[in-house]
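User: Predict the complex.
Assistant: Input components as received:
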Amino acid sequence: AQSVSQHNHHVILSEAASLELGCNYSYGGTVNLFWYVQYPGQHLQLLLKYFSGDPLVKGIKGFEAEFIKSKFSFNLRKPSVQWSDTAEYFCAVNADQRSSASKIIFGSGTRLSIRP
Amino acid sequence: DGGITQSPKYLFRKEGQNVTLSCEQNLNHDAMYWYRQDPGQGLRLIYYSQIVNDFQKGDIAEGYSVSREKKESFPLTVTSAQKNPTAFYLCASSINLGTDTEAFFGQGTRLTVV
């Protein structure tokens, strides 16, 4: 079965620091990958997604992620974080499951706290 | 406005009672999902549906039931068999269950069982 691992449970950074959140998935076939963000008190929203093509994808608010197939990874990055980036970040995978309908599986999430 | 509406936002129930959470979407999406969110565990899939009158168990379906009688509605019932029902429940929808579709989420329902 497919699974998603986010090893950083809570990350604390100062403003202007660089960010990298790790995401690894376990599935050998074709996958589509997502990063969602949940700001305090708000609903989950899509940050960026990878379906095919250029493995470096850019999302909203200056975020980007790189798909490295050989490492089964899809790490999220931002060169300079802002206080408003304080949120919980979820990596998700939707894999091509030929024996059944596909479904979106989420990681356990990483809470990001930015010190002003 | 197009979107997903979950109601109520907060729900309190006594132990042993069944409770039904509402989820309605006006995005004309075929696929709908229910997730449960617990601190440190992310979102875990309870049930999902790819079309009217069809639904499938997710990873933690025990103690839950769903129906999909209409395309726009996917209610979730938390039964008394669910051992730890207090949680934040999220409903989502996508155009279909293809792998290249993103999910859109509702605001969630926080269920507290006392």
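The CA atoms of residues 13 and 114 of chain A lie 5 Å apart.
Let me know if you want any component modeled separately.
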